[in-house]
Amino acid sequence: MVAEQMPSFRGGGNKEIMAYIQQNAHYPADSPEGRLFASFTVDAKGHVRNPIIVNGLTPGADAEVIRVVKTMDGFTPGTQNSLPVDVGLIVPITFKE
In b/e form, how buried is each residue of 32-41, taking b as 16+ CB within 10 angstroms? Predict the structure, then answer.
């Protein structure tokens, strides 16, 4: 869902989300460099729900990103007609050694 006002993470958008994941994810030893895409919903209360990997890299990298996404807090929910709503997000995550 696209909202009039998209959710924000700690005062920012996708850049802050990707930075948080990259800073908190531990590069799995079995993972080559590459990119994966994580999808999740920010609910009307600002909580992360239903994180999944849309396009994965390796089982280890995928699991690590899911682990980190589940720890994310600090979202301001998206709004539609001035009311908080659930909004789905997809973010690309790049793994580099």
Answer: eeeebebebb
* 7-43 pLDDT tens trace: 999 989 888 998 999 899 988 887 889 999 999 999 9
What's the whole-number mean pLDDT along residues 55-66? Answer: 94
CB atoms within 10 A of CB 23: 8
Backbone angles phi, psi at 64, to 5 degrees: -65, -40
The rounded Cα 96 to chain-centroid distance in angstroms is: 18
SS (H, E, C) the chain: CCCCECCEECCECHHHHHHHHHHHCCCCCCCCCEEEEEEEEECCCCCEEEEEEEECCCHHHHHHHHHHHHCCCCEECEEECCEEECEEEEEEEEECC
Which pTM value belongs to this model?
Answer: 0.90
